[in-house]
Amino acid sequence: MNDIKFFSRKKILLIVIAVLSAIALIAWILMPAPLRLQLVRAEKAALSVSVDNEGIVRVHDAYVVTSPIAATIERIVLRTGDSVTRGDVLAWLLPLSIDLQSREQTLARLQAAQARWSEATLQQREAEINHALAKNELERQKSLVRDHFISPQALDQLIARESAARAAVDTAQARTKAAQAVVTEARAAVNTFTRATERKIPVLAPASGRVLSVTQQSERTIGAGLPLMTVGDPSQMEAVVDVLSVDAVKIQPGMRMLLRDWGGDTPLEARVRLVEPVAFTKISALGIEEQRVNVIADPVGSPWPLGDGYRIQARIVLWQQDEVLKLPGSSVFRVGNEWRIFVAENGRARERTVIIGQRNRDDVQIISGLREGEQVIRFPSRQVSDGTRIMAE
User: Fold this and answer.
1) CA 335, CA 135: separation in Å to the nearest integer?
2) pLDDT in the model for residue 197
3) Which fold has domain 35-47+322-392?
4) pTM reported for the whole predicted model
5) Higher model confidence: residue 148 or residue 169?
6) Structure confidence at residue 200 (pLDDT)
7) What class, spelled out in words, does domain 62-88+205-232 have in CATH?
8) How many CA atoms lie within 13 A of 333 on its CB side?
């Protein structure tokens, strides 16, 4: 009897174990597989925040040489890249000839202007004499009013007459100045005519340097003010980078600038000298109007091996620190006003709140909430939640 009871208990125990094993097997089969995710280790390294954009290098002081008069320019023998010294002759101008009719008209305008100036001078003298007489008469009549020999009404008339005479003097003086200005203008026209009879006029270099470009190479007739060439010193260069106005407010003179993708192996050093105070509108590649600001920087160290108009890729460093705890920016996500990450702990994802500091396009600084060496999910998806089973790819 006891053997039968023992056998029954043993049988029941085996059945229970088999059922539990089956349930565990089914649960294991139905349990979702761990998510295969890319993990990244939190490490301390250098971090910098910058504004990046394309720019150009240009000569610091470029001089555009223009023609001072309308003339025929002789063929310019200088070529782009030639060295020049301040005061060197860059080009020769042959002034345009003036015909006899133009000459006579120019002299007649001067004579007429001088006659009008003489007339205005005489009228001014007459007005000054009349004013002096009115002023003396007013002084004499004032004493008679005090002695009651004439009425105050008569004195008012004399005061008005003196004021009118003074105004006439001012008007005459203004006419004289205007006539004198006309004489000056006419005399300048005559002087221009006189200079135009000279054979050649040299155009001199305003500064030492090199010829950067020649606008008028061949002999031809040109007007006054037409550009002839550009001269500058290629050893004195500057970098010009246009950035968005929202980024320009973060940039200060003295900040570091790195010039990359210029053709060399190492970036070139520069320092921001000026953030221009005026923005301009520029159409982006997507057709969007943007307000942009030019940032100008000077070389640091040896001169740049670049020429005027060369393209560069500039990086303006806003903030930099050599050793900070950082993560890829894709690891951090926002929940309300907090920043969160998923930390890998014993094969499961654990959501954790962190405080971040500076961040750039790739990485973010972790101030607190994470220890160096801990592993974090690099690209957390919607499938991941607190406690989700995970495994590294």
Assistant:
1) 91
2) 52
3) 2.40.420
4) 0.59
5) 169
6) 80
7) mainly beta
8) 16
Domain 51-59+234-320 has CATH 2.40.30.170: yes
Which one-letter amino acid corresponds to residue 346?
A: N
